[in-house]
Amino acid sequence: MDFAALLAQTKPPKRQTVAVAAAEDSVVLQTLVDAYKEGIADAVLCGDETRIREIAQAKGIDISPFAIMHAADEKKAAAAAVAAVREGKADMLMKGLLQTSSLLKAVLDKEHGLRGSGLISHVAVTYSPILDRTLFLSDGGMITYPDLAAKAKIIDNAVLAAKGMGVVLPKVAVLAAVETVNPDMQPTIDAAALTQMNRRGQIKGCIVDGPLAMDVALSPYAAEHKGIKSEVAGYADILIFPNIEAGNCALKIFTCAANGIFGGVVMGAAAPIVLSSRGDSEQGKLFSIACAGKIAMNN
Amino acid sequence: MDFAALLAQTKPPKRQTVAVAAAEDSVVLQTLVDAYKEGIADAVLCGDETRIREIAQAKGIDISPFAIMHAADEKKAAAAAVAAVREGKADMLMKGLLQTSSLLKAVLDKEHGLRGSGLISHVAVTYSPILDRTLFLSDGGMITYPDLAAKAKIIDNAVLAAKGMGVVLPKVAVLAAVETVNPDMQPTIDAAALTQMNRRGQIKGCIVDGPLAMDVALSPYAAEHKGIKSEVAGYADILIFPNIEAGNCALKIFTCAANGIFGGVVMGAAAPIVLSSRGDSEQGKLFSIACAGKIAMNN
Predict the structure, then answer these.
(1) What are the φ and ψ backbone dihedral angles of B89, each rounded to 5 degrees?
(2) N vs C: which end of chain A shows fewer Cβ within 10 Å?
(3) Rounded to 5 degrees, what angle do the CA atoms A262, A267, A272 make?
(4) Does A189 lie at the interface with B, CB-CB under 8 angstroms?
(5) How far apart are CA B289 and CA B93, in angstroms?
(6) Please, how many CA atoms are within 13 Å of residue A93, restricted to the half-sphere of its CB?
């Protein structure tokens, strides 16, 4: 499947509206225009109105389809974008030219925020053309060294994302370096506990199995060869990593060395958040907004 | 580069001899015959001679080119294979049908072993057709949670492997999730320390830089985009992982989702050790022996 087909399959059936915090950035504005043209998203631009208009004009970016909500500084821009979602004027959030921490502070504000499940985590959405599958990887971008409780919430968030994107009953592989529980390898113990939490109904809406090594999670042949009996092995939709280094290395190999398309959505707030960074490809930025839009529409 | 070209480039200019511990296994015997036919390796088969001959006959495997050293049990087979290398009858070791721990016990025996640098570690050798590069990944298979001292030795071992395979001055990326030193992320601190240990001559024969995230290690564009000035960024030969989960996930993505060819060599003993497992592809098994042969010849 090429990118056009992937985007057509991913994008929400009708434009969702994204509230952008601190939209005074030419790359962000161009991405929004591209998303608009693709029928993915409308936008509410929160930020310094004069500056936004100046930048758009200087770069020849036509922002006429979008609403602008003036905000004098970064903090006010974040609050305005959050308010737009709270008030139903937008379906999802997007980070513009501000620190991630500033945006999350507004999201987590007890009175005026968009607090959700209790843990904000990053879900990378990767389409692998070699596997011809879309995979959800978490957490390679936000939670560094999750304990068991945090891992359970990371799974909840990833499951919401996968379901939002149309996976009816996501298969969740809790990754480790081996398939057996090893008392000297905490990730294998946590994986076993998470599997059992799923069986006991403490983690819902998915099938969890672990510990699984990556080959067994991805390849039915590897699973068969190692004799692993599992509903998840070989067909995982969601890959849960024991630490941020494993998750980060993995998602970057998919993009840098496996021709994958990479998008990212932050889950756990009351609405999905797009946190694409300047280093993401143009395709990746569009894909992120499409994913967040689909998730926003379905949750 | 297809597999035939890769193998031709990798294999030693003349056959090296591999001493196989517990060779009574049809898959191992077939791999050895394949390696012999490719001009990669001769073999000394250590194990139960009757059983070895029975298996070869039953499967129609012609083991006539190989020497057999009879050993009544697994422990004796391991000792015999180690002795063959010590006495110069073989250049490298290979694991047959025995536990890895049994083989390593013989290798580490103070009196009769093949002790080397002090730390035995696993170096995965991966050819990525998408990047058209051979990468050395460590440690995704043996050392679980290395401390700083262990990481330095893991680098030494990987550098020996890379140099043995013809990389004159290996570029070593010490991986983390970010490129900045973060007091709350131990891998970034260790990476900085390893970089400085290299500058002070405590780690030799290579250029070390870290912390680097995987994209910056692999892609010159990512490195440039993030403004990382580094002799390693974008062109890493060796990837050093902070923990076994990160390393294991990474090497399995290269093979399962990136069309990579994967071989593995255990370094740190007085000779390279081939530890291919039944789950490895035929190509991977041959590639492992070719890598070990080249390393044995050049070290």
Answers:
(1) -80, -15
(2) N
(3) 85
(4) no
(5) 10
(6) 32
**How would residue A263 be classed by pLDDT, with cut points 50, 70 and 90?**
very high
Half-sphere exposure of A43 (CA within 13 A, CB side): 30
Do A299 and A290 meet the contact criterion of CB atoms below 8 Å apart? no
Instruction: Give A 228-247 residues with CB within 8 A of chain B.
Output: 241-247
B61, pLDDT greater than 90:
yes
Q: Does A27 touch chain B (CB under 8 A)?
A: no
Averaged pLDDT for residues A93-105: 93
Q: Give tens-digit pLDDT for B68-105.
A: 999 999 999 999 999 999 999 999 999 999 989 999 99
The residue type of B241 is F
Q: Cα Rg for chain B, rounded, in angstroms?
A: 19
Give the pairing of strands B67-70 and B41-47. parallel
Confidence of residue B256 (pLDDT cuts 50, 70, 90): very high
Report chain B residues whose CB lies below 8 A from the CB of A128: 257
Q: Indicate the pLDDT class of residue B281, thresholds 50, 70 and 90.
A: confident
Residue A208's closest CA among A189, A245, A233, A228? A233
**Selection from A108, A246, A225, A111 nearest residue A175 by Cα:** A246
Tokens of B218: 């692999």
List the one residue out of A145, A146, A57, A42 whose CA is nearest residue A94: A42
**How many C-beta atoms lie closer than 10 Å to residue A60's C-beta?**
8
Q: What rounded mean pLDDT belongs to chain A? A: 95
β pairing state of B121-128 and B133-138: antiparallel
pLDDT of residue B282: 85
In this predicted model, what pLDDT tens digit does every residue of B203-236 receive, in sequence order? 999 999 999 999 999 999 999 988 999 999 999 9
Give which of B61, B5, B67, B11 is closest to B33, Cα–Cα: B61
pLDDT bracket for residue A276 (50, 70, 90):
confident
* Gap from A286 CA to chain B (nearest CA, Å): 19
Whether B261 contacts chain A with CB within 8 A: no
CA of A129: which chain B residue's CA is closest?
B257
The residue among A133, A189, A249 with the most chain B CBs within 10 A of its CB, best to mutate, is: A249
pLDDT tier at B277, thresholds 50, 70, 90: confident
Cβ distance of B256 and A218 shorter than 8 Å: yes
List all residues of chain B from 104 to 143 with a beta carbon under 8 Å from chain A.
128, 130-131, 140-141
Residue linked to tokens 């922002």: A63
| Residues A215, B175: C-beta atoms closer than 8 Å | no
Q: What percent of chain B has pLDDT over 90?
A: 94
Interface with A, mutate which of B214, B221, B243, B280 (most A CBs under 10 A): B214
Residue A15: pLDDT above 90?
Answer: yes
What radius of gyration do chain A's Cα atoms show?
19
Strands B261-267 and B121-128: antiparallel
Distance between CA atoms of residues A244 and A241, nearest Å = 7
